[in-house]
Automatic annotation (TrEMBL):
Keywords: RNA-binding. The keyword Protease does not apply. This is RRM domain-containing protein. One of its GO terms (molecular function) is RNA binding. It holds the Pfam family RRM_1. Residues 4-80 form the RRM domain. GO terms for cellular component: chromatin; nucleoplasm. PROSITE patterns: RRM (PS50102). It comes from the Eukaryota. It comes from Dictyostelium discoideum. One of its GO terms (biological process) is regulation of gene expression. Transmembrane segments: none annotated.
């Protein structure tokens, strides 16, 4: 199953969900988007995720030079989390 999701790092602290969505909407229709926030300070941790409707949009976003507010972003395909493999077995 394809997630059609990218992982975006090196986000400026000022970037919110709407700014991230506006930037990446040039590559295709977005299903979901969020910036990860610190639980205590509610400030951006500098990374986020964008989920597209198509795999083609994901590849276009990854292969483009992405920059927000003069800061070059690092964009990779997001990997699925498999909790069963990463969780220690309890006996």
């Amino acid at each position: 199953m394809s997630l059609n999701k990218i992982f975006v790092t090196r986000l400026p602290w000022s970037v919110c969900k709407e700014a991230l969505k506006n930037h990446f909407s040039q590559f295709g229709n977005i299903k979901d988007c969020y910036v990860v926030l610190d639980r205590v300070t509610k400030r951006s941790k500098g990374f986020g995720f964008v989920q597209f409707e198509s795999k083609e949009s994901v590849q276009n976003a990854i292969n483009s030079d992405n920059e927000i507010n003069g800061r070059k972003l690092v964009v990779n395909e997001a990997l699925a989390k498999d909790f069963k493999e990463n969780t220690p077995k309890q006996e």
